Every structure is written in structure tokens, then in C-alpha cells.
């Protein structure tokens, strides 16, 4: 049961939904619109550099944020 990220084409809001099988959400939780699409979710990871140092990568656009998604902070 994966959690997918969706975008509403009617109000522009993004939301996450727990999906069972081939189901999809009934609509946007903000505006209840039905024109929604599944988005490619961003991810973050930790790896080691050549010298063994930890290199962090985050897809968040916030400079001090390490969240995997801006839905956590609202940006």
C-alpha cells in the first residue's frame, strides 16, 4: 500500500494519499475537484563521498529544510 503524491488541476494543491491496488483518490481534499493527477514524488538520500564524508541530498527547495516534500512545511 504505497503513498502517492497527487496534484489537483483545479486548485493547484498537492496532497498525498494511501492507495490500495489500482485505486486512486476520489478527489482533492481541499476543493473536492476530480481533475487530479499522480505526481512524481521527490526523494532524498544520504551517500558517502570519495573521502568517506556523508553527502546529503534533498529535493526540497527550501535552503534549510531536509524534508522530502514541501508539503511538510507548506512552501
Describe what is shown at a glance.
This protein has 75 residues and is mostly beta strands. 0% of the residues lie in helices and 29% in strands.
Describe this protein's structure.
- The chain is built from no helices and five strands.
- A hairpin with a 5-residue loop joins strand 1 and strand 2 (14-18).
- 0% of the residues lie in helices and 29% in strands.
- The strands form two sheets. The protein has a three-stranded antiparallel sheet with strand order 2-1-3, with no helix packed on it. Strands 4-5 form a two-stranded antiparallel ribbon.
- The model has no long low-confidence stretch (mean pLDDT 77).
- It has one domain (3-57).
- The chain has 75 residues and is an all-beta fold.
- It has strands at 3-8, 14-18, 36-38, 45-48, 54-57.
- The two termini are 27 Å apart.
List the keywords.
75 residues, mainly beta, three-stranded antiparallel beta sheet, 0% helix, elongated
Write the layout of secondary structure elements.
Layout lengths: L2 E6 L5 E5 L17 E3 L6 E4 L5 E4 L18
Antiparallel strand pairs: 1-2, 1-3, 4-5
Q: Gyration radius, to the nearest Å?
A: 16 Å
What topology, given as strand order, has the largest sheet? Answer: 2-1-3
Distance N terminus to C terminus? Answer: 27 Å
Number of domains: 1
Number of helices: 0
| Secondary-structure element order, N to C | EEEEE
Q: Which residues form runs of ≥5 with pLDDT under 50?
A: none
Shape: elongated
Query: What is the number of E strands?
Result: 5
Biggest sheet architecture: 3 strands, antiparallel
Percent range of helical residues: under 10%
Percentage of β-strand residues: 25-35%
Question: What's the mean pLDDT score?
Answer: 77
Q: Which class of secondary structure composition applies to the elements?
A: mainly beta
